[in-house]
Amino acid sequence: MSKYRSVLRSGILLFFLWHVCAFAHKPSDSYLTLSVANVDSEPTVLHQATIKGQWDIALRDLDYAIGLDEDANSEINWQEVLIKQKDINAYAFARLSIRGNHVLCPITPTQTLIDHHTDGAYAVLKFTASCQTTVSNLSLRYTLFSELDPSHRGLLRLEYESFNKTAIFGPENRLQSFVLGNVSHFGEFKEYLVDGIWHIWKGYDHILFLLSLLLPAVLVRTSKGWQPAENFKPTIIEVLKVVTAFTVAHSITLTLATLQLVALPSRWVEAAIAFSVVLAALNNVFPVVVKYRWLVAFSFGLIHGFGFSAVLADLGLRGGSLALALIGFNLGVEIGQIGILSLYVPISYAMRRTKIYKYVVFYVGSMLIVCVAGAWLVERVFNIELFSSTKGDERVDQLQVI
Predict the structure, then answer these.
(1) Residue 250 and residue 119: Cα distance in Å, rounded?
(2) What pTM value is reported for the model?
(3) Rounded to a whole number, what is the largest CA-CA distance in the chain?
(4) CA distances from 47 to 39, 41, 82, 104, 119 (A)
(5) Could you tell me the residue range of the domain that residue 156 belongs to?
(6) Above pLDDT 70, what percent of the chain?
(7) Is 400 part of any domain?
(8) Alpha carbons within 13 A on the beta-carbon side of 153
(9) pLDDT digits (tens, 9 = 90+) for 21-79
(10) Is 383 within 8 Å of 393 (Cβ atoms)?
(11) Residue 82 shares a structural domain with residue 159
(12) Which residues contact 248 (CB under 8 A, 6 or more apart)?
């Protein structure tokens, strides 16, 4: 019976890692900016509100949804975007509605551009929305890519006079309302806190890096190889050292990148993250660093921080909104990590003396992580697609305006 259980657990581990490998891509985000201007000029003129908008949508996501790469060469050029301009507008604006005081404000596309964010090329859709009355309450319904990618989020920046508001749209909050001039700092903080939790839970490469470093935490390296730890205290100390080092490191670079003090190409950051996972897992099977895994966590944690920053760096936040987003998101990441560790540490400690942990979880698991992260590394370095569920990066030949 124990033999079958071992096979079953190995199968579950294989399935999980295959799922991780197949779906590990840069989270799908779009950036929506709305600027509201109420017109209140003459008594004889109907009061109106005009909303100017800009919507940045990743070309890789649009290609996945409607197909932009006409010649199937994995490169999106300007002509391909030009051909699909009407399709892009039709697809996007069918999934965004704006209401002022509960009255629909028709959207009119005005211009399409191409711009580059930290993670690649984006279609920039400029538009206006006309409301027949002055607006005190704005309601938005956002369903972009909802039928294709449940992890997609729309990051909103709403501007009205001195009022600035940020919000995050996703499957669980497609419809949101905003009272212009009423700023809820707690609401903004909570949104980014929750987003940080989900980001670490869906960030498979970050999770596998941490797990690779923590797999040996319940073991002790001796002349006979890896042996189970005798006491819980050394285990928890090792876990705290690794997690604290990783937290401090990624907090530093997350802040620097979000403040735009340091910028690195997203493609190479993602490749370096995959490489860090490979090295951490290989170190379990062929130990080189045994006593100072916290130092490895800190060193590579600096790179992982740049990966986290992709969520906030392109949103263009300023002042108090930026501070709230940074603190909330970073705290959310830490809560997400604690949630994972609260499950992992007691289970691994309880299993540390079993052959299943030593041979299946530790050795086989580490080599499977090497294979998965190695596939990511090849994809990210050579810009190729090994798994059908991933979305590759794209290249736009030139920056132009339609």
Answers:
(1) 18
(2) 0.69
(3) 91
(4) 6, 8, 37, 15, 41
(5) 29-183
(6) 82
(7) no
(8) 23
(9) 444 445 688 999 999 987 654 444 445 889 999 999 999 899 999 999 887 777 888 88
(10) yes
(11) yes
(12) 298, 301
